[in-house]
Design the sequence.
């Protein structure tokens, strides 16, 4: 199959790579790849060789090599391009609490990736026309997470594509597409997925910091109906669910931060688990939706990761979804199954 290209450490193409199968996973968590090659067809790869599918983010630098004589295969692999962004941290400047950015989205992406991965990553000079002012990154977040959250705040996502012409990965900001507005994946289509709506999570967390008895620091955190965390109470009486967070050694700023993280893990949540197999390319951060007609639940969720595989002569893309969901009432989504439906039915 002529699909994977191998290049040397400078990006000079060496030709197509003969392979039995491959597996590229890109997204929020795992960002790695592995290619299985028959020992009869394997040719030694140069150090730090690049393996990629052109004009996609499916690729990376070979930093692992496994061999299995019993199965007759050799498996080069490593981090994907997105994984390399995951391996870089955005650090606060000396004397500052946080790192910040201001400016046009693509200009920020370009500056960040070219500074940390010079020669391998490039940005684009094309303007989105969208600007941020003093955007504050989380302390020591990964470059991938930091740029993803910055772009998400403006309705954009991070797009990566390897350019054989430039011999580099092109990083750019593109608008998030909400496929749930035009595509519905339903239980009638015999798709295997799970939906869970939970409303019995903690919505009032009493955070206890330094001090003793009446002198102890007490800070109250609450969630609203959408799961947002703040200091205003929204649930009362039978709807209020309280818990204690004991952080006796923490100063107030640390108490608040740790309390928010704790409440995030305890609050009500919705879960939408779906494995979509399709030849249609949906970007990480784009939104899809599903409906269970029997229970009446409809949910939408962003794409969290993609697993692209080639095995036994067939290429497949499997999508995994975030837990960051929107639950809609039964009548809220009256949409027709379009291209994605047709592709998933193949």
Sequence:
């Amino acid at each position: 199959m002529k699909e994977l290209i191998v290049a040397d450490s400078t990006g000079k193409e060496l030709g197509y790579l003969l392979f039995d199968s491959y597996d590229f996973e890109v997204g929020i968590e795992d960002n790695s790849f592995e290619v299985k090659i028959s020992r009869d067809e394997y040719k030694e790869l140069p150090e730090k060789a690049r393996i990629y599918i052109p004009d996609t983010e499916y690729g990376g630098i070979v930093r692992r090599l496994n061999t299995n004589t019993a199965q007759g295969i050799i498996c080069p692999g490593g981090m994907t391009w997105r994984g390399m962004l995951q391996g870089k941290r955005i650090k606060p400047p000396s004397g500052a609490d946080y790192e910040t950015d201001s400016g046009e989205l693509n200009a920020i992406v370009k500056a960040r990736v070219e500074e940390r991965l010079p020669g391998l990553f490039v940005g684009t000079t094309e303007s989105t026309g969208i600007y941020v002012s003093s955007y504050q990154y989380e302390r020591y977040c990964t470059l991938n997470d930091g740029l993803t959250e910055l772009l998400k705040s403006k309705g954009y996502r991070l797009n990566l594509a390897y350019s054989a012409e430039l011999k580099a990965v092109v990083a750019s900001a593109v608008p998030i597409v909400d496929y749930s507005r035009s595509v519905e994946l339903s239980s009638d289509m015999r798709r295997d997925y799970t939906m869970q709506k939970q409303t019995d999570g903690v919505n009032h967390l009493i955070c206890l910091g330094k001090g003793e008895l009446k002198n102890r620091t007490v800070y109250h955190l609450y969630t609203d109906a959408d799961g947002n965390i703040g200091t205003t109470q929204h649930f009362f009486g039978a709807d209020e669910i309280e818990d204690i967070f004991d952080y006796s050694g923490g100063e107030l700023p640390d108490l608040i931060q740790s309390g928010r993280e704790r409440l995030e893990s305890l609050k009500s949540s919705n879960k939408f688990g779906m494995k979509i197999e399709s030849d249609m390319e949906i970007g990480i951060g784009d939104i899809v939706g599903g409906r269970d007609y029997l229970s009446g639940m409809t949910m939408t969720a962003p794409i969290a990761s993609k697993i692209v595989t080639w095995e036994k002569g067939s290429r497949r893309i499997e999508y995994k979804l975030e837990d960051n969901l929107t639950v809609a009432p039964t009548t809220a989504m009256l949409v027709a199954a379009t291209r994605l439906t047709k592709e998933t039915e193949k």
Q: What stands out?
A: Residues 91 and 140 are 5 Å apart (CA to CA).
